[in-house]
Fold:
Amino acid sequence: MASVREIIQLCHHELQAIGIPDARLEAEVIVMNVMRMPRQDLFAHQEDEATTQHEQDIQGILDRRGTREPLAYILGYREFYGVNLLVNSDVMIPRPETETIVEHALFMALMGMESPQLVIADVGTGTGAIAINLAIHMPAARIYAVDLTDPVLNVASYNIRSHNVADRVTLCQGDLLEPVPEQVDLVVANLPYIPTGRIPTLQPEVQWEPKMALDGGQDGLGLVRRLMSQATTKLKDQGIILLEMDPEQMAVASGMALQNFPDATVTVEQDLARRDRILVVTQGLE
Ligand SMILES: C[S@@+](CC[C@H](N)C(=O)[O-])C[C@H]1O[C@@H](n2cnc3c(N)ncnc32)[C@H](O)[C@@H]1O
Structure:
């Protein structure tokens, strides 16, 4: 039987050989999951032996990973802002850069969006990643989480219920802000923003994700454009919009925001990698 240390090494080399970035980290995550070990045990129990069943399960994961299926789909979950979320191939896997939207929304709530019960729309909710974290950290907020299809909403619904926020997060099915039944204080959205032509050039793992979650049309801003226009009637007078996009889209998107909200202040927030990531449109600031 191989030890935990040997198995991690084997996994690492196999993942490296098939060109997986962060092969060592993935090897550790795979072993932690199959052997149900918390991270600290990986090192404290390096010489423990894996069972034959463990070895078979790990090989099964490596075989799937060899097809470049994302690890999150294989394991069935992804951690986002400290919470575990169910994921499957119907939804996009939440990305670390999207945590910037959550951080910024929480910061703004702290700094002065004083409404006693903020009403928020998370447009294109996917797994529910943003909506769930806002609900967890803003106990008075009411949140509408919108997406297009039943399979996506089923995943979001499972996650919302498993994090006990179903009393304040309402799922809505439809196009962008259309199904949201009232005006909101805050719109948060990580909409598809990849230009259609760029999708085939992205890494193989991305090709497993739903096109509906990636494809932003010819310039990547098709949905953002429509959302801004819908927001003119769905955003309260002092409302705020937070939109994730690519750094190079910021200038064009700022122009769109000012066209729809001529009195707004438009700023840009950076993600942890210090790349321009979130467009912030603040209505009604003097
Ligand atoms: C980039 S993913 C983001 C998912 C999630 N918010 C996150 O950050 O991980 C975009 C999401 O928008 C949804 N979507 C695409 N077009 C939409 C539309 N017209 N109306 C509502 N949602 C839409 C997709 O189904 C997908 O779940």
Notes: The pocket of S-adenosylmethionine is lined by residues 91-92, 94, 98, 123-127, 129-130, 146-148, 152, 175-176, 190-192, 212-213, 223 (CB under 6 Å).
